[in-house]
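Researcher: I'd like a structural prediction for the single chain below. Treat it as a standalone chain; there are no partners to consider.
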Amino acid sequence: MILEFLKAEYSSVRFSGTLAASMKRLGMTEKLITDADLCVDAENRQRQKLLGDFRGYGENRELFERFPKVSEWTLCGFSGNDLEHIRYIDYSYWNELSKGTRKPLVAAETIRHGTEIFGVSNEGFLRAAEYIKNGGTFPKLFFLTADYESLVIVEGHQRITAYALVPECFKEVEVIVGRCSKEELERWM
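Model: Treating it as a single chain, here is the predicted structure.
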């Protein structure tokens, strides 16, 4: 899970610079992500430390503040109707974009209507949707769930929004899902 999360952030325009700064501060190189060996415990500990420094993983801060205890992480293939069960985290930008529903499909309608939230351009979503339509793929998305009926995005908000703009392309998309208690999930999101 940690390696896949770092891979997603490493390829992110928004987060790659901050990740690179964390690697430099900790004396690590990108090889830890790009040429990883999961059988080497020392590397795994370094990646965990990096994700902690970078996003607060295991340190109860930033994205991972009050993060639920995950009983298992599962690689799943999502398609079509699964989009209806996905929710954004409770965050002002995503709440506004989705008109209070936290649903990426509603956010896609907002974007199609040309509404910009807090003055933030929708171009990134539109470019990502076009990339998907042309066969492009992205790193795995990360969700949390208590029951597989409702899934909350941990990592990949922009990508899931792009998929919501082209739902016909949401076919066998690889997703990593963490299962946790409903109480802990509600406290986190």
